[in-house]
Specification:
globular, disordered N terminus, Jelly Rolls, 6-stranded antiparallel beta sheet, 324 residues, 8-stranded antiparallel beta sheet, alpha+beta
């Protein structure tokens, strides 16, 4: 009986370890510095044209918003909040770097991270990059997206959002969130009601945020029609949605979904910035639960395995003594 209980205990422990080492993510980008060229200089560390081999759930590099010969965003000037071309230049671009921000929540839990991040440095030009995901039209009705953002206190904004699957002459962007040029937390619900090709009004926080690193978590709920909801949290608890309290900002009543599809449809992840300062982004996660996008750091696999082997040894010794 004791032998059976020991085996059951070990099985449970190894299963738990396996769960800790994996997250059910639809997409993840940690800007892995071992994959990206991080050598200083636009010709080297420009994020555009890089990405394959970093993260998971993506089909192409970061770059111009094109898919099957079509651009996300439609014709120039159609959607004023986003560019549909890659305007990166030596004086305004997203760079890949070896830097790494960190986040620890109110319960002293630390966010799991991968070495590396991307930093936008600008000259006032608006730059938009997109990376296509493999989520497509099969996305579930509830999506979570998180991002680790570092502000330098300058008038530089960052918007993060999904671009939706093409449905005609123009593509639509269901939503975006981030910080505006006043460093206020902000969200934009695209397609209020039935129009998905124009942005709704932006909702911003009352106060601005100073230089520092912040964890943003967005929850997007598709109702299948008008009434979709976007909730945005700032610096919440990791792995604990209920304990994180109410969202800082909520956009509701809009039709974030692509109107001609019955399901929630997303095709690409978007980064969009302007300003003359800098802003960094890291740890982009897309999942179906809060836990997916707010994983805590765990010991390296080798450490976990050694711990398990130690436990096996202890149990074996005790069993041996009990048989004497």
């Amino acid at each position: 009986m004791k032998k059976t209980s020991h085996l059951l205990l070990l099985s449970a422990l190894f299963l738990s370890v396996g769960n800790l080492l994996q997250a059910d993510l639809l997409a993840y980008e940690g800007f892995d510095s071992s994959v990206y060229n991080t050598t200083a200089g636009f010709a080297n560390n420009n994020l555009s044209g890089q990405g394959i081999g970093s993260g998971s759930g993506f089909t192409v590099d970061w770059g111009a918003a094109t898919s099957d010969g079509e651009t996300l965003g439609g014709s120039a000037g159609t959607i004023p909040y986003w560019l549909n071309t890659n305007n990166s230049s030596a004086s305004a671009y997203y760079s890949a770097s070896t830097g790494q921000a960190s986040y620890t929540d109110g319960n002293s839990q630390t966010l799991a991270t991968t070495a590396g991040q991307s930093t936008f440095t600008g000259d006032g030009t608006r730059v938009s990059l997109q990376r296509f995901t493999s989520t497509g039209t099969s996305a579930p009705n509830v999506l979570y997206l998180s991002a680790l953002v570092t502000l330098d206190g300058s008038a530089t904004d960052l918007s993060i959002g999904f671009a939706s699957v093409n449905t005609g002459s123009n593509d639509d962007r269901p939503f975006s969130f981030g910080f505006n040029v006043d460093n206020e937390l902000t969200t934009v619900g695209w397609g209020s009601g039935t129009s998905n090709s124009t942005p709704g009004g932006a909702i911003s926080s009352v106060s601005s945020y100073g230089a520092g690193t912040y964890l943003l978590v967005a929850k997007i709920t598709n109702s299948g029609g008008a009434g979709d909801t976007l909730d945005l949290w700032l610096d919440p608890l990791l792995g604990n949605e209920a304990g994180s309290g109410s969202a800082e900002l909520t956009v509701t009543g809009g039709g974030f979904f692509v109107g001609s599809n019955s399901s929630w449809s997303v095709d690409g992840l978007v980064l969009d910035s302007s300003g003359t300062g800098s802003v960094s982004v890291d740890e982009l996660r897309v999942g179906t639960t809060w836990d997916d996008v707010t994983p805590t750091a765990v010991p390296e696999a080798s450490t976990l395995v050694l711990s398990m082997l130690s436990l096996v040894t202890i149990i074996g010794l005790r069993s041996s003594r009990n048989r004497r």
